Amino acid sequence: MTEDFNKWWNADQGYDGVTNPYRSDSAVYWAWEGWQAAMKAEREACAALADKWHDYCAWEGRVVGLNIAKDIRARGEQ
Q1: Which whole-number Å values give the CA distances from 62 to 16, 68, 75, in the listed order?
Q2: I want to staple 22 with a disulfide (CB 3.0 to 4.6 A). Which of 29, 55, 68, 77 is the partner?
Q3: Burial zone of 5 (CB within 10 Å; 0-12 exposed, 13-18 middle, 19+ buried)
Q4: For the segment 17-40, what is each residue's pLDDT rounded down to a tens digit?
Q5: 8 A C-beta contact, residue 73 and residue 47
Q6: Distance separating alpha carbons of residues 69 and 57, to the nearest angstrom
Q7: Which of 53, 18, 14, 8 is CA-nearest to residue 70?
């Protein structure tokens, strides 16, 4: 578990701090960053499930699965 966290912490997460409304020397700043990272990870996990649905469905279901995955990932761009 610790190794997984350290791997995540040291990876390039695309962090820029621009959208964080808190001061960088406060605990809430890092809570905000953790929250944003968790939301990103959860969106990707949900989109991956939709991608997997795409693999197991007939043609119509594949289109739906791809659209769902695309919509989930787009939420992070809003």
Answers
A1: 35, 10, 20
A2: 29
A3: exposed
A4: 788 899 989 999 989 888 888 888
A5: yes
A6: 14
A7: 53
